[in-house]
UniProtKB/TrEMBL annotation:
Annotated GO MF terms: NADP binding; quinate 3-dehydrogenase (NAD+) activity; shikimate 3-dehydrogenase (NAD+) activity; shikimate 3-dehydrogenase (NADP+) activity
Location of the active site: 73
Binding site for shikimate: 22-24, 69, 94, 109, 233, 261
Enzyme Commission no: 1.1.1.25
Catalytically driven reaction(s): shikimate + NAD(+) = 3-dehydroshikimate + NADH + H(+); shikimate + NADP(+) = 3-dehydroshikimate + NADPH + H(+); L-quinate + NAD(+) = 3-dehydroquinate + NADH + H(+)
Segments crossing the lipid bilayer: none
Domain named Shikimate dehydrogenase substrate binding N-terminal: residues: 14-96
Protein name: Shikimate dehydrogenase (NADP(+))
Keyword Oxidoreductase carried by entry: yes
Pfam family, one: Shikimate_dh_N
Assigned protein family: Belongs to the shikimate dehydrogenase family.
Subunit-level organization: Homodimer.
Length: 286
C-alpha cells in the first residue's frame, strides 16, 4: 500500500472460525493497494459465543463493513439492523455494510457464482443445471440461478431432506422455478446429466483433503457439450475438472466465484469496482 494507516483509514474485515485459510484478506488488500484506496481488510477469528459482542465492537469502531464466513452466516442475521431481500431468501449473510451506523446484510455468493459463469461465456437463462451437494454454497447458487432464469435445477445430495429444504425455499419465493431433487448416487447422476447443460459440484470431493475423489465415478458418463463447474478453487483443477477436460468439456473452477463475490462486496463498501483481472492474476501468481 502506498499510504500509512491513519485515523482516516476505513476498516473492513472478515469474521469466522477457522479463518487463517481465507483468501479474502489477500484479495481485498491487493485491490485496495492497486487502487490506492485508504482501506484495510483484517481477518478476525471469532467464536460463536463472541459473535454479538464482535458485531457491536465493529459498529462502535465504525468499520465500513465486513465479510462473514462459516459458521456465522446464519447466526449473524439476528445481530443486524437490516437484511437484503436476496439474503432473506437465502437465509444467510456473507457481507455486511455499515450504512450510517446501520449494519445491513447481503449475500454475494450466488451473484458471484453467476457472474463468474457469465465471464466464461456460460449462459444461465433457459438452461438446466445439476447441482451436487446441498450445503450453504449450493443453496446460494441454486437460488441465484433460479432468480436469473434457469430453466430447471436438479439438486442431488446424499441426504435427501437437505435438497428438499432448498427446493422448498426456492419454490416458495420464486413461483416459476422448476426444481427436482434426488439422492446423489451414480444412477441418478447419469440420468440427470442426460438433460443437463451445466454440472455444478458444491461437495467437498476434490478439495486437497480429498483431491483424489470426484462425484463422477466413470468419466464416460460425462456427455459431450456439458459445462462442468466446481466451486472448489484450491486445487485449481480438481479431479472432476480433469475428468471433464478429458471429455473435451468446458470447465470452470471456483476461483471466479471467490473473486466475484468479493468484488461485489468491495463495491458495496467503496462504490468503486474491484480491479478483478489484476486481483485474479495476482492471486494466481502467488
Amino acid at each position: 500500500m502506498s499510504y500509512a494507516i491513519t485515523d482516516e483509514t476505513r476498516l473492513t474485515g472478515i469474521i469466522g472460525t477457522p479463518i487463517k485459510q481465507s483468501f479474502s484478506p489477500k484479495i481485498h488488500n491487493k485491490a485496495f493497494g492497486h487502487l490506492n484506496l485508504n482501506y484495510l481488510y483484517i481477518p478476525f477469528d471469532v467464536q460463536q459465543q463472541s459473535l454479538g459482542k464482535t458485531v457491536e465492537a465493529m459498529k462502535t469502531l465504525n468499520f465500513r463493513g465486513f465479510n462473514v464466513t462459516m459458521p456465522h452466516k446464519q447466526e449473524i442475521m439476528k445481530h443486524l439492523d437490516g437484511i437484503s431481500e436476496e439474503a432473506k431468501i437465502i437465509g444467510a449473510v456473507n457481507t455486511v455494510v455499515n450504512q450510517q451506523g446501520n449494519l445491513i446484510g447481503y449475500n454475494t455468493d450466488g451473484k458471484g457464482y453467476t457472474r463468474s459463469l457469465k465471464e466464461e461465456g456460460v449462459a444461465i437463462n433457459n438452461k438446466t443445471f445439476v447441482i451436487a451437494g446441498a450445503g450453504g454454497a449450493a443453496r446460494s447458487v441454486a437460488i441465484q440461478l433460479a432468480l436469473d432464469g434457469a430453466k430447471k435445477i436438479i439438486l442431488l445430495n446424499r441426504t435427501l431432506q437437505k435438497a428438499h429444504d432448498i427446493a422448498e425455499l426456492i419454490t416458495k419465493n420464486i413461483s416459476d422455478a422448476i426444481i427436482e431433487v434426488n439422492t446423489l448416487e451414480n444412477k441418478n447422476l447419469v440420468k440427470a446429466l442426460e438433460e443437463a447443460d451445466v454440472l455444478v459440484n458444491s461437495t467437498p470431493l476434490g478439495m486437497y483433503s480429498a483431491k483424489d475423489q470426484s462425484i463422477i465415478e466413470d468419466e464416460e458418463i460425462i456427455p459431450a457439450g456439458l459445462v462442468v463447474s466446481d466451486l472448489i478453487y484450491n486445487p485449481a483443477k480438481t479431479k472432476l475438472l480433469q475428468q471433464a477436460e478429458n471429455r473435451k468439456c468446458q470447465t470452470v473452477n471456483g476461483l471466479g466465484m471467490l473473486i466475484w463475490q468479493a468484488a461485489i462486496a468491495f463495491e458495496l463498501w467503496t462504490q468503486v469496482p474491484m480491479p478483478v483481472d489484476y486481483v485474479k492474476n495476482a492471486i494466481l501468481r502467488d
